């Protein structure tokens, strides 16, 4: 018989094998929080076995997770690193801000900033804080593409280049035609000689003055051109090119007539397969009460290989949509590695996220020897996964759930929240609006002007605004759903009468966070908004950074400053200095001086190494 004085079992008193089974069921955020409960549990959570399991099950497709798995070490560091990034985003607490460069045009992908300044195209590895940039001399490249033209008739090559995309060491740009010639899509391999086949990978003619989007990998490139046609809304003509052989496939997109890129239509690639998502109505009769995501997948190197279908999006009775706030994109889930449809919608008074965890809810069962889409499929009992048969190539699949799981939508504000605490901004003052999937955070870059001391003149001021959420305690402590002190019960039942997995989850808002604070030093405000008026601001964000272009006094004509806001504590840019602490904000009357380096003429071939422009500009701060 057990003694009445026997102390109760606690989590840190469990045998390690039992503790391991519990800890490995948690995600990275819960692991960090658990490790901070007391010293004994902290010591237990230092186990590489637990950290490795967490990385493999939760972070396997993140940048940190892939590095740890490849090295077979550094698992605890990977978990902590991702947690720090997520917290910095969720609480609007970046680690650094800097002016990286100035440019006419820029793209940012895979942590690489590609920008054009003067007659040079430059590549900077932002994630690694590179101390060298690759520089491509356009004066050397463009004349080789302008075959048959008299040199005296050719304008400045730099003025004819528009950056389109960067990925895996390859830069793609549009070259404007002259003297009656059509434009060209040009792909240049910037990789070192020992890792590339040739420098010029592609040059294809395209009509002038038509929209074009490009997505590519190291081996395959897709580009889509919008073609206007008489008597219709127009259509998207898509071309896929094998960069090794030049083999090309070409097709017109279904369910994508017209459409606004990033609003009702988006494109992306996954494992070289091309995906198109559209929310446009294909049949008013069929979609009188519901709307759907229409998706299509095209296989590389296989002209006839296509998969398509639709996923339920929303019911019209949920309310009218404010189209100005709609943002549609395809993102990769860092946990599963699957593409996800992410759409932000403003419906009447609420801005919600409407994500779907995959583009295909089936297991491909294509005939032997045929090309098939990436082999990610759904084995869960998520209610968004309706029953479907194994597909046949060309068949259409329709999935229409009746309800969403709470984890699959995110209202920016919960019902009952105080509107005065939302700190909302109108669309005209919102320069950037996105959703960070990994940290469950809405991220806005807003113009929040501050009046001068005379109360009359106003200067623009850019600030971050984030709204995040976290999982609620699984114990119903407040008696929301029934008797307090009990676990929340599943709220959905499947067709077999069984509880739907994860339907018991509840979430709670972490509130609105703004940065910089009202009393931040004037130097920081001047860095984020160098001019008195912000003007047009172009932004690109990834999982740890936000980069935007903004007007800045003293720059060459047509150039704008490129500002980095980094949420990565491991960023290494040597010119950053600690932001000095001030008790009161400084004067915002004058912009700080900006050193404007003159790009040197390239030498030694098409591509050379150069000191990065951020060294000459020397304007950036460590924030904490």
Give structural notes.
This protein is mostly beta strands and 624 residues long. It has two domains: 11-90, Monooxygenase, CATH 1.20.1280; 96-566. The protein contains nine helices and 36 strands. The strands form nine sheets. A six-stranded mixed beta sheet has the order 31-32-33-1-36-34. Strand 12 (235-242) and strand 13 form a beta hairpin. Helix 4 packs across helix 6 and helix 5 packs antiparallel against helix 6. The longest helix has 16 residues, at 75-90. It is globular and about 90 Å long. Residues 360-371, 374-396 and 582-593 have low confidence and may be disordered.
- Strand proportion, as a percent range, falls in 25-35%
Order of strands across the biggest sheet?
A: 31-32-33-1-36-34
Count of distinct structural domains: 2
> What Rg do the Cα atoms give?
26 Å
Number of strands: 36
Shape: globular
What's the total helix number? 9
Helix content: 10-25%
In whole angstroms, how far apart are the ends? 57 Å
Q: Structural class, from helix and strand content?
A: mainly beta
Biggest sheet architecture? 6 strands, mixed
Unreliable spans = 360-371, 374-396, 582-593
Mean pLDDT: 83
SSE layout and pairings?
Blueprint: H1 16-23, H2 28-35, H3 39-44, H4 48-58, H5 63-71, H6 75-90, E1 96-103, E2 105-109, E3 112-117, E4 120-125, E5 133-137, H7 138-145, E6 161-167, E7 170-175, E8 183-189, E9 200-206, E10 212-216, E11 220-227, E12 235-242, E13 248-252, E14 265-270, E15 273-278, E16 290-298, E17 306-315, E18 327-332, E19 339-347, E20 350-353, E21 396-399, E22 410-411, E23 430-436, E24 441-447, E25 450-451, E26 458-459, E27 462-471, E28 475-476, E29 486-487, E30 507-515, H8 522-528, E31 538-541, E32 545-550, E33 560-566, E34 577-578, E35 607-610, H9 613-617, E36 620-622
Parallel strand pairs: 17-21, 34-36
Antiparallel strand pairs: 1-33, 1-36, 2-3, 3-4, 4-5, 5-35, 6-7, 7-8, 8-9, 10-11, 11-12, 12-13, 14-15, 15-16, 16-17, 18-19, 19-20, 20-22, 23-24, 24-27, 25-26, 27-30, 28-29, 31-32, 32-33
